[in-house]
Please model this.
Amino acid sequence: MASQAELVHLKNDEPLEHVLEVLDTDGAVIVEECFSAEVIDQILVELMPYAEKPDSNRTYISPTIAAFFGEHTRHVTGLASKSPTFVTEVLLHPLMLGIADAVLGPNCSDIQVNVAHMLVVGPGAQAQFPHRDEDVWPHMPQPSPEMELSSVTALCDFTKELGATRVVPGSHRWEPDRWPEPHEFADAEMPAGSRLIYLGSTIHGAGTNSTEDQHRPAFHLSYMLGWLRSEENNCLATPPDIARTLPRRAQELLGYDIHYAVDDGGGYLGALDMKIPADMLASGEL
Model:
């Protein structure tokens, strides 16, 4: 009988090169001690009021998307507009940005946020359909470079019973039509404050919450090649009145920069009135 797959656990002070080595080999890695209990508590104070609002009126883009997230999962979107602590501590976390620059940087002039959501998986939530995050861009010719770097931040201790994310190590190197066997899934069990970091080409999915009364809050934050279109319309999710209060780098990651590829023989993307939107935020024009 084949042994059950496992994920490598590292600490937040691990050298970037070592994290990248594991990510290159396995397509996923757990980094512990990314966030203190105090930071998590503050973020939950800022965000849980949104998660506790009745979700019965939420509508999704289509029944397929609704089924993907499930009726037992509460969804908080546009985190950069709702939690200043999320911006400074999570969105701008130096290790994650360093990994994103190393993985995605060779194929773009700068990275951007793809999506930043909080997902609270409740009792009765069933396992997600295993998928690759990069499949949101199905028209990209293959083979392609890595298009996305994703992460799940545990805001409580992740256990299999709570629905810890299920990951298939090594699947980023598979042929597209290969499907994982049960023993090839690893449960991303990790203490609160840890971060599961994985490539957009790695197969994964949320697990089943088999508890009777426990919720599993977590962040999904992903970065992408700066010239792709993001899943979340970040400039609307974090409108100018809020964006101008954020650090310049956060503004850039949220789409208020231009993707300037002129020096690489290309052009530019995302200008407004032939200007950089982040400059216009600073000057008061926007």
Q: What stands out?
A: The mean pLDDT is 93. The domain at 9-230 is CATH 2.60.120.620 (Jelly Rolls). Residues 158 and 189 are 5 Å apart (CA to CA).
